[in-house]
Fold:
Amino acid sequence: MLSSKIEETSKEFSKDILSVKNAEELEKLRIKYLSRNGILPALFDEFKSVPKEEKPAAGKALNLLRNEITQKYNELKDKLSAESKRSSSKVDLTLPGKKYPVGSKHILTQTLDEIKSIFKGMGFSVFEGPELESDYYNFEALNFPPDHPARDMQDTYFVSDDFLLRTHTSPVQIRIMEKMKPPVRAIMPGRVYRNEAISARSYCMFHQVEGLYVDTDVTFAELKGTLVSFAHQFYGKELKYRFRPSFFPFTEPSAEMDITCFICEGKGCKICKDSGWLEILGCGMVDPNVFDSVNYDSEKFTGYAFGMGIERIAMLKYGITDIRIFFDNDFRFLKQF
Ligand code: DAH
Structure:
């Protein structure tokens, strides 16, 4: 009887499909039930010889069986193919993650941070001033005579007759003395600009740190003590140094501080021009004319000032011989620090 065969086939199929674990077994299932020589077409063949009055019921049962088999077959096929896709693109969670390069502070920032922390340790505060300055702050208030060569168009980037890109950080001295009464003890870092030919030794923009201490009875000995202490903390205790007389319009007396050449250790070489010494900063006692321009009583107060180039300080510490390399942003250079 066809109806009992249909029932048996349904049961058998339900059992068979449970054991299908992969595509190969699924294909065997398809061949067994759905292929041209499979069970289902054979049942449809048999249906042809079913007596007429039984046809509606048998046809219905047969269609239900076909629908059930094809539906379950298709569902299982989809499930197995999704599984195989998932396993072929398996994520290995034990693999190490991607590493992205971590940035670091530029060596000039690191150098400035170190300079700041040394001077903060000696009681200095930190102030900043504008890079676009007036002729008054950059020159006049600092006792530069009107015909001083530093005002020459060759050195200074003038923006207009009265405004310029500051050529040094010394104008910030004037700005803070205008605002504060003594005692003043501050360092003033920042960018400065010079209209010079670019070479291994000079660049059109660089950084300076200015220092200023004004109070009653400030002496040259204190200036020396502070700078020597800075140099020892920054370059190490073995460092040898010397002070040479010099000239700056805004200090009197003025000096420059040298340290022993880091390349030849004092014997004389190309870098130190055979002198064995390298200049690291300019300094001196604040000129009374500067005090006059900020209305400080020069009979009552004395003070010292100093200024150093941050690039130069870093070049001497790390043995860098070309200033341009600071601004190239070459990774091979930057990542060494
Ligand atoms: N402003 C000077 C320069 O750019 C450096 C300097 C020298 C600053 C002596 C000072 C100082 O405060 O006392 O060359």
Residues 168, 170, 210, 248, 251, 282-284, 305-307 surround 3,4-dihydroxyphenylalanine (CB under 6 Å). The mean pLDDT is 92.
